[in-house]
Amino acid sequence: DAKTTQPNSMESNEEEPVHLPCNHSTISGTDYIHWYRQLPSQGPEYVIHGLTSNVNNRMASLAIAEDRKSSTLILHRATLRDAAVYYCILDSGTYKYIFGTGTRLKVLA
Amino acid sequence: DAGVTQSPTHLIKTRGQQVTLRCSPKSGHDTVSWYQQALGQGPQFIFQYYEEEERQRGNFPDRFSGHQFPNYSSELNVNALLLGDSALYLCASSLRREAFFGQGTRLTVV
Fold it and tell me: Are the C-beta atoms of residues A3 and A26 closer than 8 Å to each other?
């Protein structure tokens, strides 16, 4: 199972952009890159996913490196509600998600 | 759409007992996966059901078993509970590259 590496924690000021990095050097050609976030005492929430091209949705943007060995989740304007643990996950299409410890994002008012 | 619903939300059991957790997937989702999340850790994949059969399994002992019904709802059964089974148990239903998670069942084994 392909694995990802993320920093344990990051901090951001409110209303500033946040770039959350993820390394996945063993990614295979058919693996999709997914991002989920989890607030305390809640289940993980889908944020965004992509394969090769950069992706945007109402929540965030996903920038994927050309060699696909790394990606960055971009929150354009962090709010206090964005404070959560963010997980970067590779999926080969089987929905068997291998979670790491994720990045705990702290947003400062 | 109610999303993924799990029951009960909280449960306390004694060592050696058996427990059944339930999951109703998001409407139209035919694949259900179960995860165990210990405190401070990321979720760990237990197994996955599709068309009423176990399709994939993580590194969990046979004490963990499951079932999927014709309406796609699912149950997770754990026998001979150990203190280490205390965790948040998450159910996820999937369709078209997106998985939706329920709020989980908090199981405490005493």
Answer: yes
